[in-house]
Amino acid sequence: MKVGEIYGKNRNKKLLVMYIDFFLMTLFGGIYNIYTSQNYYIYLYK
Questions:
Q1: pLDDT tier at 4 (50, 70, 90 boundaries)?
Q2: What is d(CA 42, CA 33) in angstroms, rounded to the nearest whole number?
Q3: C-alpha to C-alpha distance for 22 and 16, rounded to whole angstroms
Q4: Which long-range contacts (CB under 8 A, 24 or more apart) does 16-23 make?
Q5: Other CB atoms within 10 A of residue 41 CB
Q6: What tens digit of pLDDT does each residue of 7-46 get?
Q7: By CB neighbour count within 10 A (0-12 exposed, 13-18 middle, 19+ buried), where does 7 fall?
């Protein structure tokens, strides 16, 4: 019973970490894309 509880908690933690990791990656990826595209447009307009 206790092993199952620990396993369940670890599984939930892993899922949570995965979700947070995915969220942060998409967030930073979006910011990075906006930043690079802005630099690209500035480069085009120079």
A1: low
A2: 14
A3: 10
A4: none
A5: 10
A6: 677 777 888 888 888 888 888 888 888 777 776 666 666 5
A7: exposed
Token pair for residue 4? 């199952």
Terminal-to-terminal C-alpha distance of the chain: 67
Distance from C-alpha of 11 to C-alpha of 9, rounded to nearest angstrom = 5
For residue 15, what pLDDT is reported? 84
In whole angstroms, how large is the CA radius of gyration of the chain?
Answer: 20
Q: How far apart, in whole angstroms, are the C-alpha atoms of residue 18 and residue 20? A: 6
DSSP assignment of 2-45: HHHHHHHHHHHHHHHHHHHHHHHHHHHHHHHHHHHHHHHHHHHH
